[in-house]
């Protein structure tokens, strides 16, 4: 679908029969529990089991998933990627043509922009993530800048608009999922954006965008358009729903907000010991306990990880492993802890090279985006 067509669909959607089935965005009422609709979203979309932080590269079935609409039916034999708009040579490339180009692999940590949303008060009503919406994979494909160089971007182009095959209704707007990047971001050498066709050395799984998806290192997951079918270079900024409405930091419904872009620093801990089934409270034995996990940031390299065993009253510096997977992958950290009988709250926080540290309490926004408040793990030592 052309951007002009998509815009027409967006503008007309509120007047269609689709609008009544799709409610406006809202925040939960005081003491309102998780709704049936939120539970249905949570059943469709899943996070990383935190014990899987032990893997340098996340197995595809454990990597977090957020599918806005449906996983589309795909015929790989007829799938094409169209590159058009403000280019000198429009291109239509099938999968064989893309695979014939020199491949590149990047290890990238991807995190959902709404990670942590369910912990906010009042809670934005949407996919109710806690802290598990993350994963790291080796993505293989063709650099987007290679494809755009072949097409020849015109000097007046300002954005590249990416459209996926997933189609649905959101807040009354019928749409194909679409996002954009500035031409500068789309053609940058670092971070290098990929049109990816493999995940961890195998074809993309259906839920991860088979047969093609965008990989934008350092950016939250909404930028990594799945089931990619169309790239249009435009001479005006894209105003589609996912760009201009959905992923923005707002304090009120009429606040135009600022766009959500790069991943804020975060560290997560592998929960130690063993869990209670319902509460997930951890149980450990007295004595030495190795605390470990992963830390990452899409803004600047992580330079420090600290841990606390008293809910942030005091902190100790953890040992941060050297970056092994490249600049856009998480880093392993570990620290010793001597567990003593009683109840404890383990906490971990990351700081990046820009001096940005995770907050102990999260500033609120209406969409629940970029919530990187520190992780807290209740532990009972007995």
TrEMBL record:
Cofactor annotation: Mo-molybdopterin
Residue stretches making up the Oxidoreductase molybdopterin-binding domain: 68-241
Record keyword Oxidoreductase present: yes
SUPFAM superfamilies attached to this UniProt entry: E set domains, Oxidoreductase molybdopterin-binding domain
Pfam families: Mo-co_dimer (PF03404), Oxidored_molyb (PF00174)
Chain ranges of the Moybdenum cofactor oxidoreductase dimerisation domain: 286-379
UniProt keyword annotation of Plastid present: no
UniProt keyword terms in alphabetical order: Metal-binding, Molybdenum, Oxidoreductase
Record protein name field: Sulfite oxidase
Organism for this UniProt entry: Streptomyces tauricus
Native organism taxonomy: Bacteria, Bacillati, Actinomycetota, Actinomycetes, Kitasatosporales
